[in-house]
């Protein structure tokens, strides 16, 4: 592996439940961003985790490959989802997002989401945000219910 | 620097029955997450599974896998995702490149373990690919959980069937430290 280049930007461990984690004022000095979400959720009926870039929920598309333990699937969507599968309350899952060339102003942004829900499903989303604006904030959120106490969310800058 | 090399292990001549982080002492508690990058091959006669154990534990693991296991064609497809109890942390069969495959080919993997010091269960992410010069290649994504509530202080990697890792197999353990740059905010 090349010279280690992870730089810690911000992190939080929830002391109360929260539905949306917002990283703001992200410096434009790195090549890529990595967001590591290690969490549990309190709503078992909600399948998806979502992302906003610069508070935008528009202009997202994705291509998915995922499996639930008995079959494999693929899908495409035009929404800002980064994972699927419902959860078990109190069970720990993780989603690892890599946001490539986030500060570029000459290209659409691409995101690789690798998500892990051991008792529900595993998969990968290739996400496109069809805007050329530099990204200075990233939100990770659910549309119903909350992330539970003790969930952790950390953002890193990757130097090229 | 929030990514730190903890230990790199390269198997010497004669092979090794297992790779253990740490052989001496415990994995330091100074970090937030752990990352293991592996390049390994073993002496089994065909693709072999990997047994991994946290703190020497062989219980409490569960996983969902998404696997492309292509034993006969170059252009494989994602065929199935199988429930895998991974007793003892056993990956789905057929990941580690073995003596039955093309010489000098090694399989690779990236193994990410968030919050390894937590006092609750540990969720982890594992991406693997075997190699055999175009045939019989397999890839796998694994979503795993270990229900152990002690901090992870050791990780042992072992080929199945009591075979050995061959010379030049390697595994590297990194610590990832979360924190603040004083500029970025989180709310």
Largest interface: A-B, 51 and 49 residues
Q: In one word, what is the shape of chain A? A: globular
H and E order of chain B? EEEEEEEEEEEE
CATH C-level class of chain A is Mainly Beta
Computed over alpha carbons, the radius of gyration of chain B is 17 Å
H and E string of chain A: EEEEEEEEEEEE
Low-pLDDT residue spans of chain A: none
What does the model show?
The complex is a heterodimer of chains A (160) and B (187). With 160 residues, chain A is mainly beta. Chain A has no helices and 12 strands. Chain A is globular. An 8-stranded antiparallel sheet of chain B has the order 1-11-3-7-8-9-5-6, with no helix packed on it. In chain B, strands 2-10-4 form a 3-stranded antiparallel sheet, with no helix packed on it. Chain B is built from no helices and 12 strands. About 8% of the residues of chain B have low confidence. With 187 residues, chain B is mainly β. Classes of the chains: A mainly beta (160), B mainly beta (187). Chains A and B meet through strand 1, strand 2, strand 5, strand 8 and strand 9 of A and strand 1, strand 5, strand 8, strand 9 and strand 11 of B. Strand 2 of chain A pairs antiparallel with strand 12 of chain B, so a sheet runs across the interface.
How do you describe this structure in short?
The complex is a heterodimer of chains A (160) and B (187). Chain A is mainly β.
Structural key phrases:
heterodimer; A: 160 residues; mainly beta; Jelly Rolls; 8-stranded antiparallel beta sheet; 4-stranded antiparallel beta sheet; 12 strands; 0% helix; globular; B: 187 residues; 3-stranded antiparallel beta sheet
């Amino acid at each position: 592996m090349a010279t280690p280049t992870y730089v810690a930007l911000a992190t939080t461990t929830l002391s109360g439940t929260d539905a949306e984690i917002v990283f703001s004022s992200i410096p434009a000095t790195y090549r890529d961003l990595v967001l590591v979400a290690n969490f549990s959720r309190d709503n078992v009926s909600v399948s998806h985790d979502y992302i906003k870039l610069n508070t935008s929920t528009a202009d997202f598309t994705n291509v998915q490959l995922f499996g639930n333990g008995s079959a494999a699937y693929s899908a495409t969507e035009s929404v800002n989802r980064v994972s699927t599968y419902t959860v078990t309350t109190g069970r720990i899952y993780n989603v690892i997002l890599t946001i490539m060339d986030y500060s570029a102003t000459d290209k659409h942004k691409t995101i690789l989401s690798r998500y892990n829900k051991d008792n529900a499903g595993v998969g990968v989303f290739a996400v496109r945000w069809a805007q050329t604006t530099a990204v200075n904030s990233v939100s990770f959120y659910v549309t119903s219910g909350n992330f539970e106490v003790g969930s952790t969310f950390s953002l890193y800058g990757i130097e090229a | 620097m929030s990514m730190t090399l903890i230990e790199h292990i390269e198997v010497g001549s004669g092979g090794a029955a297992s790779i253990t982080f740490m052989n001496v002492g415990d994995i330091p508690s100074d970090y937030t997450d752990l990352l293991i990058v592996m390049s390994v091959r073993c002496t089994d006669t065909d693709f072999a599974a990997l047994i991994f154990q946290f703190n020497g534990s062989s219980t409490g693991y569960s996983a969902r896998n998404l696997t492309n296991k292509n034993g006969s064609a170059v252009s494989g497809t994602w065929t199935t995702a199988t429930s895998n109890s991974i007793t003892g942390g056993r990956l789905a069969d057929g990941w580690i490149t073995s003596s039955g495959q093309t010489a000098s080919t090694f399989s690779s993997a990236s193994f990410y373990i968030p919050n390894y010091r937590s006092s609750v269960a540990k969720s982890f992410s594992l991406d693997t690919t075997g190699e055999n010069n175009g045939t019989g290649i397999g890839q796998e994504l694994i979503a795993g959980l270990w229900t152990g509530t002690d901090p992870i202080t050791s990780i042992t990697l072992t080929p199945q069937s009591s075979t050995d890792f061959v010379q030049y197999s390697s595994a590297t353990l990194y610590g990832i430290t979360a924190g603040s740059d004083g500029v970025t905010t989180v709310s």
